[in-house]
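dumping this here so i dont lose it
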C-alpha cells in the first residue's frame, strides 16, 4: 500500500469488525479491536482513513458473528472510538447495527451516538 501516499485523492473506509473477523478466520491469535485497528492504521496510513464502519462482534462457538449492537461482545465502543478518532482523520462513521439478543442488555442507538460524539468530535 505504499503507493497510496502518492495519491492525495485516495481515502479508505476501515471496517474494524470485518477486519477482526478476517484476522480470526485466518487463525490469528491476537484479534482484539485495538490491535487490529492499529495494524490497519499502519498499513493504510492514519491520514488516509476517512470513514469507519462500526459494529459489535460476538463469539458463538468457533465463529464470530458481526453487526451486533454494542454493550456485549468483544468490541468496547468507547475504547475503540477514543483510539480510532485520536489516531486517524476519520470524519464519517457508519453504524452497522442489525442484531441484538433480547435477553442481553445492549447500548441503545442514542447512547451509541453519544459515545461516538464524546470520543470523536474535535473542538473547532
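and the seq i came up w/
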Amino acid at each position: 500500500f505504499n503507493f497510496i501516499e502518492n495519491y492525495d485523492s485516495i481515502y479508505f473506509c476501515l471496517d474494524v469488525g470485518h477486519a477482526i473477523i478476517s484476522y480470526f478466520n485466518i487463525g490469528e491469535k491476537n484479534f482484539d479491536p485495538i490491535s487490529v485497528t492499529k495494524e490497519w492504521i499502519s498499513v493504510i496510513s492514519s491520514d488516509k482513513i476517512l470513514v469507519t464502519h462500526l459494529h459489535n462482534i460476538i463469539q458463538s462457538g468457533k465463529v464470530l458473528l458481526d453487526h451486533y449492537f454494542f454493550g456485549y461482545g468483544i468490541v468496547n465502543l468507547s475504547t475503540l472510538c477514543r483510539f480510532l478518532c485520536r489516531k486517524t482523520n476519520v470524519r464519517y462513521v457508519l453504524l452497522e447495527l442489525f442484531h441484538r439478543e433480547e435477553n442481553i442488555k445492549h447500548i441503545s442507538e442514542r447512547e451509541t451516538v453519544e459515545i461516538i460524539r464524546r470520543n470523536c468530535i474535535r473542538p473547532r
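The longest strand covers residues 49-54.
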